Amino acid sequence: MPTTRRQAAIAEGKISPAKEKKAKEKKPSSTKKSNGSPQKRSHDKVEEKQEYVKEEETGEAPKKKAKTDKEKEESRQDRYQAGRRAHERTLKTIINPLKGTIERGHIYFFYRPRVQVEEVNSIDDIRNFHILLVPRPPEFAVHTGESSNNQTKKEDPENSEKSEQKVLARGADAVPAPDNSTSTKKQYRLITVGKKKLPDPESHQGGSRRKETFFAIVTDVGDNLDDLEKGLGEKTYQTKTRGERHEGPARLVARGGYAIVNSDADKPSARETHLGYHVSHPPPAELGDVQKSLGIFSASSFILQVKNPRAPANGPQQAHSKGAEYPEWIMRDIFGAASGHSSNVKGRENYGLRFASCETPELLNYRGADLILIASRDGEEGLETSLGDGRGNALADAENKEVRKPVENVFKELSLDLDKFPVESLEGSWI
């Protein structure tokens, strides 16, 4: 029995059941927008199929829609801003955090005799005086020592608590890790001091209060100790006027640990970089006339500054120096040299500051870098005052323990052949 008018109309034959079914199919099932007519959707599928067939036949992807000038400019600006942000992150990583200890390692002092001088009796017989810096990681970063192939051993979980205590120890960032490696692959810098000795903290220039100030130059930078041995070794060569000439090998006169520390100052101009060292060999009680003549104390420090290579030379010696070829970011961000539209110009000249503190050890990694060494303080108490925050005391404690290391091991650290380099000079005697 029909219950609705529509069912009654179907029963009376006024509405065909087939038409009713067709009407229901045409009626939309929801109020959502249609994605387009069936004809349009079919057309889109045909186009997609044609593009796919074209790609299969030619091996070429369909061409992308060309960018408008506005889109190109926006893309260029995005790349510029991304590059600028990356540059700022680099500067923050390289410069801003470099307060406190920026480097530590082992320091060595050498002198080379004058040409044709077989036996050195005083500083007058010396041709060159060198400082050798071999950077090392901090001691707390090397938990269980090193293997013979210079690879750091895996940390022992049982020592993790001790490791954390070392990290938190006052002044631990200035203590270099011991070097038990026999590998020749080590970074080094050879610095030649013009006055053939270190500036004396107890001496003053011309009777004034001004501390002794000496110029120095980075004469060699490398990562292979075999090259260093050749450079410091014995030399024989021919000259047109004097014939064969001979230079004896460089003499090692002291070894110890060093730390380079940047003071934390409100103004960049007030910031100072101190290089402090403590000698382990020879022991402090055995320092002889050789070390005294060269200005080497058992513990001492000096202020380190770097000369702008674009600044005018201060003397005839620097006039003949080529100078370091620093990258543009160092010239701009450390020395403040004018660069394009940069407003980060420092000083009164376009080349920027004449001298700068050692904001980053990267400044020492270029041959020809001109340095200034200004005498600061001597003794363990003076070392602590210069480095601060317990660093001087921590370095002194570490090097006093290193005294027990045999002299032969000191030469092995640098891969120096004991048959070619004399040992007597390290014992305080001229040779």
Which features does this protein show?
431 residues; elongated; 12 helices; 11 strands; eight-stranded antiparallel β-barrel; alpha+beta; two-stranded antiparallel ribbon
Describe the 3D structure:
Strand 5 (235-239) and strand 6 form a beta hairpin. The protein has helices at residues 5-12, 17-26, 38-58, 69-94, 160-168, 225-232, 289-293, 316-319, 328-333, 379-387, 391-402, 407-413, and strands at residues 100-113, 126-136, 188-193, 213-222, 235-239, 243-247, 251-262, 273-281, 299-307, 355-357, 370-378. With 431 residues, it is α+β, with helices and mostly antiparallel strands. The chain has one domain. The protein has an 8-stranded antiparallel barrel. Strands 5-6 form a two-stranded antiparallel sheet.
Architecture blueprint of SSEs:
Elements: H1 5-12, H2 17-26, H3 38-58, H4 69-94, E1 100-113, E2 126-136, H5 160-168, E3 188-193, E4 213-222, H6 225-232, E5 235-239, E6 243-247, E7 251-262, E8 273-281, H7 289-293, E9 299-307, H8 316-319, H9 328-333, E10 355-357, E11 370-378, H10 379-387, H11 391-402, H12 407-413
Antiparallel strand pairs: 1-2, 1-7, 2-3, 3-4, 4-11, 5-6, 7-8, 8-9, 9-10, 9-11
Q: For the largest beta sheet, what order do the strands appear in spatially?
A: 1-2-3-4-11-9-8-7
* Class per helix and strand makeup: alpha+beta
- Count of separate DSSP helical elements: 12
Strand fraction band? 15-25%
Taking the sheet with the most strands, its summary is: 8 strands, antiparallel, barrel
